[in-house]
Design brief:
The chain is α+β, with helices and mostly antiparallel strands. The chain contains ten helices and 13 strands. Helix 2 (60-73) packs parallel to helix 7 (200-209), helix 4 crosses helix 6 and helix 4 (164-173) packs across helix 9. Residues 33-138 form the PurM-like N-terminal domain.
């Protein structure tokens, strides 16, 4: 099998064929496109998400924190606690593991999330450090927003710029190939993208505003995330290539490696669907967050309107473009 997420049909079968127990307390359970589970504890409910970092060599501690906290924030919920598992190959030094934990501590300090447990192990099962985290959040019962809530006619809003995470990873890991293509200022800009990958603020603002669904954009890029959201909500979508917010630096990096920024891992951006996209865009801007309406939820297939080719059907996502480099 190739690196990256499992084929979506295989993944759906894997999930659906292994649900022997279904407890009444679980309000939102696992499914393709649903990054969080929600457990009802009466007055409050607990929102939980887990993810590893496998596609980056640099900043893995920082990425692990935000990728997982972003999932919880996509429910409109403040992340409050994190558990950390670090698996390191046999040649790893203590200083390297300590550096990863320092990154995790620094990033959780910024967003007021407590490290409450985890596991650290040296093992021959991996050939580089792998970090996997589980994040918990709490909200009033019934208030968590799911991926599966998109409704026909909703505006589709994306926040910030797409492929920030992917661009940052590529520039850090492939600097030798890019240093003659990008200016020093562009390299610095790409490295600063690591500071923009949290979506906690837009999650909080949108949750209070009242939206139908939210989904953070990770592996598979914006097109993969749209497909996941549509599949979870049993709807379609129509989005426009010329409305997609992609920075000039990201376009340059993607051109060098002949990859599509719309299919590149994009932590730092969130998809939000709502009946009133223009008002949400204004509210997000008041809170310092740029956002763009890229299309609408439909009752048909997922469609991308391309500048040169016209309307094309968006297929189920394959592995992220990052793994093609």
């Amino acid at each position: 099998m190739k690196s990256g997420k499992l084929n979506w049909d295989d993944l759906k079968g894997l999930i659906n064929n292994n649900k022997s127990v279904k407890r009444d307390e679980v309000r939102v359970r696992n499914g393709v496109g649903e990054d969080c589970s929600v457990i009802d504890f009466g007055e409050y409910e607990c929102v939980i998400s887990t993810d590893p970092i496998t596609g980056a060599a640099e900043n893995i501690g920082r990425l692990a924190v935000h990728v997982n906290c972003n999932d919880v924030a996509s429910c409109g919920v403040d992340p409050m606690a994190i558990l950390v598992t670090i698996l390191a190959p046999e040649n790893t030094t203590f200083e390297e593991i300590n550096d990863v934990m320092k990154q995790i501590d620094e990033e959780t300090s910024k967003i007021n999330v407590e490290i409450i447990g985890g596991h650290t192990e040296i093992t021959s099962a991996v050939n580089r450090i792998v970090v996997s985290c589980t994040v918990l959040g709490k909200c009033i019962s019934g208030k968590a927003v799911s991926t599966a809530g998109a409704q026909i006619g909703d505006d589709i809003v994306v926040t910030k710029s797409l492929a920030l995470e992917g661009t940052n990873i590529i520039v850090n890991d492939k600097i030798e190939k890019l240093k003659d293509v990008l200016t020093k200022e562009e390299i610095n800009e790409a490295k600063e993208y690591i500071n923009k990958i949290s979506v906690i603020m837009e999650g909080k603002v949108s949750g209070k505003f009242g939206v139908n669904s939210m989904h953070d954009i990770t592996e598979g890029g914006v097109l993969g995330a749209l497909w996941e959201l549509a599949d979870a909500s049993n709807v379609g979508f129509k989005v426009y290539e010329d409305r997609m917010p992609v920075t000039a630096v990201t376009k340059k990096v993607c051109k060098v490696f002949n990859i599509d920024p719309l299919k590149l891992i994009s932590s730092g951006s969130m998809i939000i669907t709502t009946k009133n996209g223009e008002e949400l865009v204004k509210l997000l801007m008041k809170n310092g967050i740029n956002s763009t309406i890229i299309g609408n939820i439909t009752n048909d297939e997922g469609i991308l309107v391309k500048e040169l080719e016209g309307e094309v059907i968006v297929p189920q996502p394959e592995r992220d473009e990052l793994f093609s480099i």
